[in-house]
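Q&A log
Question type: sequence-to-structure
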Amino acid sequence: MGSGHFDSVVIFGVEGDVFAKSPSSFAVAQDENHAFRDQFNSTAKKELLIAGEKYLVQLSTPKAIYGNKSGGGFLAVKTNQLIIFGVFGEGKMPAAARNAVERMAEYLESNAY
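Response status: OK
Response body:
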């Protein structure tokens, strides 16, 4: 996303296929991908594995999931066709990361994605 607020970003199609990713991106196993996509349909706070790292879901809505772990976190925002998934580490500002990914989602939705 080029904002500097994330260590890595992956944009998935809502069915789980990779649409785009940052050069420093991570690999998400198929079962991890399925579990985090299912989380959009749940409000339960639970642990998710992302690229082998354990995160605690702090907030989950039909449009967004926010999770954290010691020294970092992730954001996932869903549009009609895509899921923008960003991971940030220590020294990154979660509020700035959230703003960046939500603006990207708004842009994509305004362009029929």
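Response note: The helical segments are 30-38, 94-110.
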